Task: structure prediction
Amino acid sequence: MNTVRMPDSPTLSYHLKTLAPFIEQRSGKYHLTPMGKDAYSLLLKAGTYDKLTLYQKKRFGATIGNAILWGIAIVAAAYLEVNMVLTIIILPFNAAIAISTTYQLFKQ
Result:
């Protein structure tokens, strides 16, 4: 209350009592109880889960997009007659690694 410069109010007291399993007051400051820490951890995991779900939904698009970009790079290198070793061996190898990495990153 001091931090936000709020006067003591019945509403605030009611909410603090409601949160009693999750917070405790020590030395004039509020701290999370073990249950409060668990609840906070669970909330963080739920937010992370939503992000991971979004990544998984976008995995296919990201992997295909990466493959198209690498395909364009390989075709451009061949068209511009870049060193054959680069065009035939190195670029496709790098493309395979990049596409696989993209897929794996979105998989996790």
Remarks:
- Helices lie at 10-18, 34-79, 84-107.
- The mean pLDDT is 76.
